[in-house]
Every structure is written in C-alpha cells, then in structure tokens.
Amino acid sequence: MAMDEVYSATTAPNPKSSWFVVPTEHLDKTRFILKIFQVLLSSVAFFLEEAVSRCYNCTPLYFFEFVSCTAFLFTLLLLILLSTPLHQKATITCWPTVDFCYTGVIALLLFISSIVFASNNGHSSLETSAVVFGFLAMLAFIADFALFWKNQGHPFSNGGKAPTTPGGAVQVEAPAEKEKLTTEANGAD
C-alpha cells in the first residue's frame, strides 16, 4: 500500500481555501473597492509628482512625494494582506486597529502635504494635477475611515462584545441557567 493511497481516500479539497478572498473578517467589499481607489489615486499623485522636472521650492514637492509614495505602497501592501490569507500568517492580531490608525494617519498626511504642495509650487499643469489627485486620494482615505467607524465602531474599545481568547469567545454562563442547575443539584440530595 503506497502513502498516496492512504491520504487520497480521506482528504478532500477545501472549496473555501483560495488565494484571494473578499469579503474577509477584516475587509468587506465596499472598503475593498475604496482601498483599490486609494491605491490608484495615490499612485497617480505620486507618478505625476515624479514627472515634475523642475521645482520652484523642492521641500513641499519632496514631502508630497514621500506621503503619496507611502500611501501608494503601504495601502497596496495592506490591501494584499487583508484580501488574502496572508494576514493570518503575520504575527499581528489587531488588524482592525492597524487598518483604522493607518487610514486616519495617511488621510491627515495627504491633507497636509497636498495643502503645502498646492500653496508652494511652480503652478505647472503636472504639479496642479498631482495636487488634485492628492486631494482625491485623501477623500478616499477619509471615506474609508468614516465607513470603518460607521460599520465597526472605534477599534480601541471592545464595544460590549465578550472577550476573546486564542481558542474563541469566552462562554459566560447565564445566571438563570446556573440557578436552575444549583436548584436541581440541591433537590436531588
């Protein structure tokens, strides 16, 4: 009897195990689409900024470049992690908190960098376009942040849910059940 025969007769493929899974427990379809827009808009802002050949004052340009590139690359990474089983392999256990904080911070940084770059540039069409896409990306991040807050609440509070352990939710026995068991045990004596 070969090894293959032993395992092939008892194992079956899992239809739910696929590489790309949306919705997941951390990302619904609407927020997935918003994250795709965030990646696209921040990448366009970054590439337009990279096409600027001369700058009037380079510090705002470099700050905008840093923020738009960070938004593009880290949002792409977060999107890949949350929409695939890869997030289960990472040692991070607080994905909602990471997603919530990251989205809020990037929205704020895009707001600041877009305002700074808009107020201090050479007013070329590329710079103006980059600023517009920076503000559009910021709006996508704000929409994602607001949708997260509306649907899931603040991730730092437990929200009245039962505390969880690595094995699952902690089971709390109802007082009426406990009283019934105590009464039955006393009556049987």
UniProtKB/TrEMBL annotation:
**Which PANTHER family has this protein been placed in?**
CKLF-LIKE MARVEL TRANSMEMBRANE DOMAIN-CONTAINING PROTEIN 6 (PTHR22776:SF25), MARVEL-CONTAINING POTENTIAL LIPID RAFT-ASSOCIATED PROTEIN (PTHR22776)
List the signal peptide residues: none
Q: What is this protein called?
A: CKLF-like MARVEL transmembrane domain-containing protein 6
Domain MARVEL residue range list: 26-153
Give the membrane topology, semicolon-separated if more than one: Multi-pass membrane protein
The transmembrane residues are 60-82, 94-118, 130-149
Region of interest (Disordered), ranges: 158-189
Q: What InterPro entries does the record point to?
A: Marvel (IPR008253), MARVEL-CKLF_proteins (IPR050578)
What is the annotated localization of this protein? Membrane
Q: What organism does this protein naturally occur in?
A: Acanthochromis polyacanthus
PROSITE patterns tied to this protein? MARVEL
Keywords carried by this UniProt record: Membrane, Transmembrane, Transmembrane helix
Q: Name one GO cellular component term.
A: membrane
Origin: domain of life:
Eukaryota
Q: Give a Pfam family name.
A: MARVEL
